[in-house]
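Homework-ish question, so no full write-ups if that breaks the rules, but can someone show me the predicted structure for this set?
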Amino acid sequence: MTIGSPEEPKREVHIAFERVVKSYDGRTQVVKDLNLEILRGEFLTLLGPSGSGKTTCLMMLAGFEALTSGNITIDGRPVHDIAPHKRGIGMVFQHYALFPHLTVGRNLAFPLEVRGLGPSERNSRVRRALQLVRLEGLEKRKPANLSGGQQQRVAIARALVFEPEIVLMDEPLGALDRRLREEMQFEIRRIHQQLGVTMVYVTHDQQEAMVLSNRVAVFREGRIEQIAAPETLYEEPGGVFVSSFIGDNNVLYGEVREVRDNDICHVTIGQDRDVKAFAGEATRPGEPVWIAIRPERVGIATSDNQYSNQFDARVNDIVFMGDHLRLHVETCGIHNLVLKIPNIVGHGAVLPGDDIQIGWAALDCRALSIESKNSL
Amino acid sequence: MNRRRQGRRLLRRFIPVGLALPLVAFVLVTFVIPLATMVVQSVHDPEVADAFPRTLALLADWEDSALPSPDVYEAMAAELVLSRENRSIGKVATRVNRIESGTRSVFAKTARRLESADTSDMPASMIQIDRRWGDVSLWRAIVKAGQRYTARHYLQSIDLERGLDGEIQLVSEERRIYKTLYLRTVYVSFAVTVSCFLIGYPIAFAITSVSDSLAKILLVIVLVPFWTSLLVRTTSWLVLLQNQGVINDILVWIGLVDDGSRLALVHNMTGTLIAMTHVLLPFMILPLYAVMRSIPPVYMRAAASLGANPFQAFARVYFPQSLPGVSAGCLLVFILSLGYYITPALVGGAKGQLISNMIAYHIQTSLNWGLAAAISVVVLVGVFVCYFLFDRWVGIDKLKLG
Ligand SMILES: Nc1ncnc2c1ncn2[C@@H]1O[C@H](COP(=O)(O)OP(=O)(O)O)[C@@H](O)[C@H]1O
Ligand SMILES: [Mg+2]
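A: Not a homework solution, just the prediction itself:
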């Protein structure tokens, strides 16, 4: 198996949430009627804003929180009466939770000791786990004497050393700086591919979710808004929430004028501007919709009728971002439409205050229903 | 200009020192000075030396196998009269009596009668007044008591004495009381520490695991004993534990013990143990609670996720992390027990007295302050030894009191 070519997960359900409800106080439901199937060997990420119930789901799966109603099954067997220490689920906690009074070696040996493994078997497994996370030779150190990244690796090694079939990680990279975080993302990806365990990963960072996952479940207020592969979420968001949570999006308000049978609809925005968009959820004339356009799909027109949607615009601001530029423009009565322009020779032609023409292809923008449950 | 700046710099340097002055003064007045006085008391015993300077000078090269020469008797007589006049004779008599018991009356009687005695043959007159002036052992006692600086009290405080030939030896069997008391004190302190730990640990653990509002109530219950008078608390144990007390009544009532064989729970070691455990329990619970509260619950979850059952998680993860609190609580309770006084005095009876009760006895009743001071210093040294052993084994920086 080579790095960078994710193996297609086997289509076999490993973990299932069935109509799971969780309420801590008996009044507000933190998790609402949740259904979720996780495939064997899959890397599934629970993505969503803070407080949307991701950790709660993980805790219920690990056995640290009771379900208010519903069922969680592993390999088809309900787990509600299995104590946490008997579930055999590896877990990486947000702040690592390495035992401070034990050395790295003893931390890693802990799950093996409580399982009654002999010293030689323990030592070889600990050594292999440290190799896996590239931390050979640190057995004797105390966790306090490790850097954040090293502690993170130890925590991952500890969750894997007893060879669980399921590994849960709750925002494991949250405390690391950006560079280290990116490095660790690829490490986790590599480890997952190497071991083929079923991984349930929690993050609020959409970038991280994209890099790591086979599938991403987007959480919002205790519900799954959409569950799909990262590319699908990005290209075909199931609603405005997902479309603006995954990557940047310009969202314009409009009203459907006409739907063509080739999945293109005409939407009136502002006073009388006509935008052609991929129909998506919009089905009937007169319906109010959101139109979502990715900033990198909007371009500066160099000639008339270059784009199927093309408008006059005034440049308000230009922000230099290194590999690209962000243009904030005013168009069609919208005060702030964002364009992402690659940083290539010739960009200096545009200055703030200039009047330009911008545009985008009809298939690059989607009409999203306002009245569906997926509305903002 | 320059000088002003210098002055200001000087001032700034001394402000922190100045702020610490009240503390320094407080520690000096309440701790260092009494402690120093105590140490001096235990070795400095000037009463007899001040009262009989001439006699003692003459006795300096006395062969203590025979009676002293007549001029010693004459000097003694003169100084006895003098010390009767300046009223120091009582103290002197007490000092000598401690060394040679039964000699207290000799001095006052002799001084009184010497006024009307025949001074031509002083040895004879004095021996006539009291036979013991013809006894070598009285003179030996005077010489011994006449030492201005003495290790006597320290020797006595550990059941030793200087024999006739000056050799240090154990005192006779029936006078060896201090060793028993030290051992009993250490034993009781140890037992109290262990029972405080056994009772306090689960309580502290419970307080950390319940909800905040309940924890507050439990903490108040732990602290209530602190807010009531020690005397009241201790005497209430009398009410509970005595022969006709609440506990015995209940035991008889439920038929666990016979009315004729009620348990002796008080005025003995049991009483001391029970009451001291109760009094010192907060000193165990509070440091334990402070440390336990700082142990994040996520460690127990981590242990469970790694396959440890609740007992393993507790023994391997929680307990080791609570050790700083355990050692702090145990050290505190043990050291406080070593010097505990009121509780054993009230509920201990004869068999439940500890070393500090002996110190109190020598201060209040026998008025042998030198000995009381020596015993205190021995206890203090014991406390320091505990402290340093603790530092050696556990590390004092690991101590967390809250
Ligand atoms: N132990 C708890 N007791 C009460 N409420 C909780 C508890 N844990 C989480 N919550 C609440 O449940 C909601 C979801 O929390 P959580 O699952 O931690 O979300 P996320 O991990 O997505 O940030 C939040 O509103 C949070 O306040
Ligand atoms: Mg969370």
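Now go work out the reasoning yourself. Hint: The radius of gyration of chain B is 30 Å.
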